[in-house]
Amino acid sequence: MKLKGIHHIAIIAADYQASKQFYTELLGFEIVQEVYREARDSYKLDLALDGLYQIELFSFPDFRPRASWPEAAGLRHLAFAVDDVEAWISYLRSKQVKVQDVRIDEYSGKKFTFFEDPSGQPLELYER
């Protein structure tokens, strides 16, 4: 048996509309499909990056807040590969997103930084 890769990452949004705008307009994800699931009073938004399905964004009326940041049990953070971390930091800050300063991975020597989505989900930008 062999895994073929990661199919998608599911994120529950505290503010669905703000998160939808954040992931599509700010980060550039494309909407594959959006459905409203009446039985769960929940939206499900499928997002792709360069045509590759990557994120399921959910709304739930009874979500629970994240325990702590970023050391809560479970998904610690979601990292995106970028070509220029510093350019992304400038871009995000121009959109009023709080972004940490550039850090250097002590093992790879690569640049990275952290920020968060509207729900407080820790996100990372890691230079390829």
Automatic annotation (TrEMBL):
<dbReference type="InterPro" id="IPR051332">
    <property type="entry name" value="Fosfomycin_Res_Enzymes"/>
</dbReference>
<feature type="domain" description="VOC">
    <location>
        <begin position="5"/>
        <end position="128"/>
    </location>
</feature>
<dbReference type="Pfam" id="PF00903">
    <property type="entry name" value="Glyoxalase"/>
</dbReference>
<dbReference type="InterPro" id="IPR037478">
    <property type="entry name" value="YwkD-like_dom"/>
</dbReference>
<dbReference type="InterPro" id="IPR004360">
    <property type="entry name" value="Glyas_Fos-R_dOase_dom"/>
</dbReference>
<dbReference type="InterPro" id="IPR029068">
    <property type="entry name" value="Glyas_Bleomycin-R_OHBP_Dase"/>
</dbReference>
<protein>
    <submittedName>
        <fullName>VOC family protein</fullName>
    </submittedName>
</protein>
<keyword id="KW-0479">Metal-binding</keyword>
<dbReference type="GO" id="GO:0046872">
    <property type="term" value="F:metal ion binding"/>
</dbReference>
<dbReference type="InterPro" id="IPR037523">
    <property type="entry name" value="VOC_core"/>
</dbReference>
